[in-house]
Model the fold of this input.
Amino acid sequence: MRILFINNKDSFVYNLVDYVMRVSKSKVTIVDNSITLMEVEEIAPDRIIISPGPGHPRDTGMVIPLIKHFYEEIPILGVCLGHQAIFEAFGGRVERAKVGPVHGKVSMIHHDGKRIYRNADNPFEATRYHSLEGRHDSMPQCLKVTATVPDGTIMGIRHLSAPMEGVQFHPESIITMQGLKILRNFVYQVE
Done:
């Protein structure tokens, strides 16, 4: 299996790669977010993971065009900024977090128990590092909320008809106890 990591210039990408390599024997390719659609086609990945990173999702180079082009044919997982990019790609609004920057905060994640959350504790503790978030009042019709924290902030989304998910929290954080399980479920597309 070939997994393509889109690096949004974030140090967490290497922790994420390490976690994916722990749960699979996949060939991993790491590229920055300026990769072209043709270059992605040449790599021919079986999975795409879009990393965390600084800034707003509209400033992520080719990430949003990549999501729009490949979402129906290649399973995609967006983490933090990658999650926000999925939200934005389908018309959702990503704005400053209502509670202000959330950096290193451990929160209880409540989820739907399906796909990437299959067999994960519910709720589970996860670490969050974000200053932006997707807004409920602009939720794209093709996406559904799959995870939240107790105040209702969106922590997970899933496309209704395509193999694509996003998580606002960091599965690669050592405090996110279900992180390996979530990544394994994504890699092996557990239903």
Q: What stands out?
A: The mean pLDDT is 96.
